[in-house]
């Protein structure tokens, strides 16, 4: 995986980074919608900035990397490909943020499917994710696996960039807030009741505090 990144000239530059640039780049789908939203903002989209203000004033986007791959141990697929990774300055804090774009798509597989006939590598991966998040196995069967490694990606990159905080945000453009219940089940593992538009501390006392939230994006980008 290269460590050299090139400046974007617009949303189309995001397309070539997708696993399937034809199938995944469609109007009203998350990849295209997220790209148009963030490019139009020329910084942080207002709904993202509003959430980050709770941890530091005047949040400023320093760096954004679409389809950012974060290496993870175990399992056959060794990376978490985040829709967007952002470094943000909020007050006097440097914040590592992973963004998961959503419209109607689910959070990949629930644990019951992901663990079916699990290899030793998958078991090792899950143990690592639980350790990073301070969770104990077994996890609920209906918990969506994707939320675990997206949150851990934020922690890994926070350590890499020496950031003080790690944040995972679901940037949803679904008017019906589809899959919000799945996100609420994830935050519930930490005893946290989530609300849209509000950043919640999942592990505020950890060496790198972890926060999570659900941002409601501007639905006008669904038609771009």
How would you sum up this structure, described in words?
The chain contains seven helices and six strands; from the N terminus they run H-H-H-E-E-E-H-H-H-E-H-E-E. The protein has 224 residues and is α/β, with parallel strands linked by helices. The chain has one domain (12-223). It has a six-stranded mixed β-sheet with strand order 1-2-3-4-6-5, sandwiched between helices. Strand 5 (200-203) and strand 6 (210-216) form a beta hairpin. It is globular.
Summarize the entry for a quick read.
By secondary structure, the protein is α/β, with parallel strands linked by helices.
Q: Bin the strand percentage.
A: 15-25%
Instruction: Provide mean pLDDT, rounded.
Output: 95
Would you report the number of β strands? 6
Q: What would you report as the Rg, rounded to the nearest angstrom?
A: 16 Å
The total domain count is 1
Shape: globular
How do the strands of the widest beta sheet line up side by side?
1-2-3-4-6-5
Query: What distance separates the N and C termini?
Result: 30 Å
Counting DSSP H or I runs of 4 or more residues, the number of helices is 7
Helical fraction equals: 25-40%
| Uncertain stretches of 5 or more adjacent residues | none
Give the topology string: H per helix, E per strand: HHHEEEHHHEHEE
Keywords:
globular, 7 helices, 6 strands, alpha/beta
Topology:
Elements: H1 12-15, H2 30-41, H3 46-52, E1 60-71, E2 79-90, E3 93-102, H4 111-114, H5 120-133, H6 145-160, E4 165-172, H7 180-188, E5 200-203, E6 210-216
Parallel strand pairs: 3-4, 4-6
Antiparallel strand pairs: 1-2, 2-3, 5-6
């Amino acid at each position: 995986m290269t460590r050299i990144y090139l400046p974007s000239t617009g949303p189309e530059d995001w397309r070539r980074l997708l696993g399937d640039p034809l199938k995944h780049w469609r109007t009203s789908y998350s990849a295209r919608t997220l790209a148009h939203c963030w490019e139009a903002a020329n910084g942080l989209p207002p709904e993202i900035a509003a959430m980050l203000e709770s941890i530091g004033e005047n949040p400023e986007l320093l760096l954004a990397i679409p389809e950012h791959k974060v290496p993870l141990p175990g399992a056959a697929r060794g990376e978490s490909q985040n829709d967007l990774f952002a470094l943000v300055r909020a007050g006097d804090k440097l914040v590592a943020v992973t963004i998961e774009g959503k419209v109607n798509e689910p959070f990949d597989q629930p644990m019951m499917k992901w663990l079916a006939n699990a290899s030793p590598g998958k078991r090792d991966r899950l143990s690592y994710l639980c350790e990073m998040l301070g969770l104990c196995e077994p996890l609920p069967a209906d918990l969506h696996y994707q939320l675990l490694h997206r949150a851990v990606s934020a922690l890994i990159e926070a350590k890499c960039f020496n950031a003080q905080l790690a944040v995972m945000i679901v940037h949803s453009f679904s008017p019906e807030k589809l899959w919000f219940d799945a996100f609420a089940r994830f935050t519930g593992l930490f005893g946290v009741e989530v609300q849209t538009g509000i950043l919640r501390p999942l592990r505020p006392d950890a060496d790198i505090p972890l926060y999570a939230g659900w941002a409601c994006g501007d639905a006008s980008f669904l038609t771009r």
